[in-house]
Amino acid sequence: MIIAPHPFGHSLTATTLLETFSTHKQWEDRYRQLILLAKQLPPLPESLKHNELELTGCENRVWLGHQHLPDGRLHFYGDSEGRIVRGLLAVILTAVEGKTPQQILKGDPLVLFEQLGLHQQLSSSRASGLQALAQGVKAIAAQYVG
């Protein structure tokens, strides 16, 4: 059974995000899209907001959990108290959901932010929080690679 299911990486893919964001050239419009993504991320139940899932290095409180699926792929889930950070988390989830640990370690989850035109507009604190999220994903994947 999947813990904390969400649409990212399933019905909302990197391709659908690229299509959506490509029609929005202004930063304000992309910012609105990020907030809309945040609204599609189901809130984590309080029972899943463990201290060990909380990431450090983020402006807002952020939780990042995962599940190692029987077929070897990883399911990620998370939440944040900040709606922009929730939107950033949704993009990260889209980039890494359902991939194997090897695929995650070979790739860069932040590439999707560049492709969407989001990275250069982030404040330094949000950019460092985003880096913390990417490092969290990589650290989880590294646990499963011999």
Automatic annotation (TrEMBL):
Residue positions of the active site: C58
Pfam family, one: SufE
Native source organism of the sequence: Yersinia aldovae
Family affiliation: Belongs to the SufE family.
Full protein name: Cysteine desulfurase
All copies of domain Fe-S metabolism associated, residue ranges: 19-138
